[in-house]
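Quick one: structure for this chain?
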Amino acid sequence: MKKQRLVTRTVILLLLGAAVAYTLYANLTKDSLQKVEVGKQAPNFALVDLEGEKHQLSDYKGEGVLVNFWATWCKPCEAEMPFINNQYQVYKDQGVNVIAVNIGESKIAVSEFSNRYNLQFPIVNDKDGQVVNLYGVDPLPITFLIDKNGDVVEIHKGEIIAEADVQKMMEKIKP
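Got it. Here's what it folds into:
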């Protein structure tokens, strides 16, 4: 009986130890998830939009690009989309583009969302999460400002609260 209790307690202790070790590892490496850094070249990617057209980041060289990672279920993402859309209309003829990267939702859900807000910029779908992993996206929304040379000039984590903030972002990356 004592031997069985000892074995049970040892197993429980090992499981707790493993859980603590994993938690420490996850917390210590959390900051290293951010794979893209300000001042460095933005990783290139190619994704397809809702109309089946391919968008490759390197094709936008010479122009500024606001890359926004989002999802239809994300309330902060939903709140900032009209601001991004309005400022895209202002800056699209000034060499500033928007690529909205949806994180792998169904085409129907993304299309309905896009139609509801009459979004005019390209919306691409990262079906397998490769670009999300490449950019170390966490949390949503997250916005990367990329200048005409393809360098990241700012990373904005969280909701963009005011349209004036989007305007400032567009000005930062305007060629």
